[in-house]
Amino acid sequence: MKKNYSYVAMLTGLLMAASGTTNAASVLFTSFEQYGSDPVDYVVSIDDLTAGFFNVKVKIAENSPNQGDIRGIAFALNYEITADDISGSNITKIGLNTLNNQGGNNFNGQGSGLFTAENNYFLLSIGSPGSSSGFISSTNFSIASLGNSLENAFSVFGVRAQSVGPNGSGSSKDISTTFAFDGAPVPAPSAVWFMGSGLIGLMGFSRKGKATVKA
């Protein structure tokens, strides 16, 4: 009878682990059109690993031809949110349906039509202009997903940087409308636990089997 219990634990754990997966999606923006005076390459990754939120990570690429101070982030969404649905430690101002937050943070001019063609776009001010010691080369923030799919959430993404170039007098305004989407399933936390219970059951059965042979 104890052997049967080991079988039950093993099979139950493995079956529940097999079904205990969740679709963790991610979006990667890497192909940006440059409209500023000095080129800067960015990497923007977005995931939905936190329930109810999209986690956005923006950084200047390691192989970028120039470094600078990230001052603004603009994006267009395919669903409606408010400023209260956006949070990040480096965000100092949130503008809805505007491309000018003042202080050198704007997306006016070339490329602006990519945002204004949408119904719901935001401009975030990042940090404060100042000395090079306060430069921001990467930043993270979150956006409430409100039940929306990451694959269809974003349509345009832009990054604005100041103090760009060898002498720090240039600027960068990069905008992307293309991204790579990955919706590969990953094990849910509960699945890991149940997989462990299945393995424990298997070990218990194996040990009892060996003991029977020795007898």
How is this fold's topology laid out?
Layout: H1 2-19, E1 21-23, E2 26-29, E3 33-34, E4 42-47, E5 53-60, E6 69-77, E7 86-87, E8 91-96, H2 113-116, E9 121-126, E10 138-144, E11 154-164, E12 170-176, E13 180-182, E14 185-187, H3 189-214
Report on the architecture of this protein.
- The protein is an alpha+beta fold and 215 residues long.
- Helix content is 22%, strand content 36%.
- It contains three helices and 14 strands.
- The chain has helices spanning 2-19, 113-116, 189-214, and strands spanning 21-23, 26-29, 33-34, 42-47, 53-60, 69-77, 86-87, 91-96, 121-126, 138-144, 154-164, 170-176, 180-182, 185-187.
- A six-stranded antiparallel sheet has the order 7-10-5-4-2-13, with no helix packed on it. Strands 3-12-11-6-9-8 form a six-stranded antiparallel sheet. Strands 1-14 form a two-stranded antiparallel sheet.
- Strand 4 and strand 5 form a beta hairpin.
- Helix 1 (2-19) runs antiparallel to helix 3.
- 28% of the residues are buried.
Following the backbone from N to C, one meets helices and strands in this order, namely HEEEEEEEEHEEEEEEH
Radius of gyration (Å): 24 Å
What proportion strand?
A: 35-45%
Helix run count: 3
Shape: globular
Short account of what is shown:
With 215 residues, this protein is α+β, with helices and mostly antiparallel strands. The chain contains three helices and 14 strands.
Question: Which tags fit this structure?
Answer:
about 220 residues; disordered C terminus; about 35% strand; six-stranded antiparallel beta sheet; alpha+beta
